[in-house]
Amino acid sequence: MSGRQAEVIVAGHICLDIIPTIHGKPARMDALFVPGKLVDVGKAVISTGGAVSNTGIALHQLGCQVSLMGKVGQDLFGETILSILNKYSPTLTEGMIISPDASSSYTIVISPPQTDRIFLHATGANDTYSADDLRTEQLLGARIFHFGYPPLMRSMYMNTGEELILLLKKVKEQGLTVSLDLAKPDPETEAGCADWRSILTGALPYVDICLPSFEEIVYMLHRDRYEIWMKEVGSGDLLTYATGDFLSELAEELLEMGAAVVGLKLGEHGLYVRTTKEVSRLSAIGPCLLSKELQANWLDSEMIVSCFHVDAVGTTGAGDCTIAGFIYGLLQGFELEKTLQTAVGVGAFNVEQADAVSGIPHGSKVWERMDNGWKQREMKLDLANWTMNGDQIWIGPHHKIAEGGR
């Protein structure tokens, strides 16, 4: 061990991504996958993926002291994952869990030119992740524990999330601020059929900050509505249904389940956040909101922030990097509005590169670009007749502040 003390721990799902380069003219998938056919491909891009890698490395590049706690097998894929992480910093992998009994998770990404990608994913060691994998001494000195993608980790959603609840409770009892990210499972799988409303009801009393995407949380809490909407939109983009009042409704459900801060990722449209109105619940967040002044700023607020203008190259890991920006803001002791701006700023740096993390600079560079007049996009969601609550701010190109807001 280096003796270096991490301020943020990123745990949960990690995998190895193998992306063959497919040249030539655009081709349909059924033309590629013909029995007996040899498809000539180019060099494979090999990288790490998942919440542990994407959010963790982004936080490292922003300048945070990070420890990663993903789980890999004692195999060649596991060695490759650790090798890639070590190139960023050997200290990142000191908390990684290596299992001799499990195989490492991997994803083969089939991405022909101008064609939607197909992912062949093996969950591997992620399926065996348990509360016992986490030793309490590893948490000493840390301020934030972020856990990502439990829907892609079998032990986390089986038995109505008993293992997930046990793990989060174990961390919260050590006094850390707990953050949770989700993922939308394949509807045809065990994870897709799990009772996510019950799982979240049990887990969120031990979660301070819940940061799912709009699509994920609609799927988990309103499956019937999700299925109707998916039939209505051929493109599969549900964000056309993300009205202001529905965002408030979803956030209120998650707050009532026990979370103190709810952030809903809205893709190219930005980030929405709503916070608890209960002083005692907000103060229980822990080491990231210790001062009374900061608690007063975060209490009973509802905000939506639009994205910054960029020339987008790729969106891989954009949500994970947005979360990294949010956590960075917390660690810096920023007020809520500045934390949201930081989150979408880091997300914007992400999409300027094809991969998940190479575009992420030090946190000071994010704010340097904002201070130099980085423009934000117009909000394109339907926010008409939105009845907001608490401190009400729309942070966009015209910085509209509703009545009663700061």
Query: Could you state the order of secondary-structure elements as H and E?
Result: EEHEHEHEEEEHHEHHEHHHEEHHEHHHEE
The biggest sheet amounts to: 11 strands, mixed
Rounded radius of gyration (Å): 21 Å
Beta-strand fraction estimate: 15-25%
Shape: globular
CATH architecture designation: 3-Layer(aba) Sandwich
Label the structural class.
alpha/beta
How widely separated are the two ends? 46 Å
The third-level CATH topology is UDP-N-acetylmuramoyl-L-alanine:D-glutamate ligase
How many separate domains? Answer: 1
- CATH top level is Alpha Beta
Low-pLDDT residue spans = 397-406
Helix tally? 15
Beta strand count: 15
Q: In order across it, which strands form the biggest sheet?
A: 5-4-1-8-9-10-11-12-13-14-15
**CATH homologous superfamily (4th level) name:** Ribokinase
Give an overview in words.
The protein has 406 residues and is an alpha/beta fold. The chain has a single domain (8-31, 40-401), classed as UDP-N-acetylmuramoyl-L-alanine:D-glutamate ligase (3-Layer(aba) Sandwich). The protein is built from 15 helices and 15 strands. The protein has helices at 29-32, 51-62, 76-88, 154-157, 162-172, 190-193, 196-203, 214-221, 223-232, 244-257, 279-283, 292-298, 318-332, 336-351, 363-371; strands at residues 8-12, 15-20, 44-49, 66-73, 97-99, 106-110, 118-122, 144-148, 177-181, 209-210, 261-265, 271-275, 301-305, 391-395, 400-401. An 11-stranded mixed beta sheet has the order 5-4-1-8-9-10-11-12-13-14-15, with helices on both faces. A 4-stranded mixed beta sheet has the order 3-2-6-7. Strand 4 (66-73), helix 3 (76-88) and strand 5 form a beta-alpha-beta unit. Helix 2 crosses helix 13 (318-332), helix 8 packs across helix 9 (223-232) and helix 14 packs across helix 15. The longest helix has 16 residues, at 336-351. Residues 397-406 have low confidence and may be disordered.
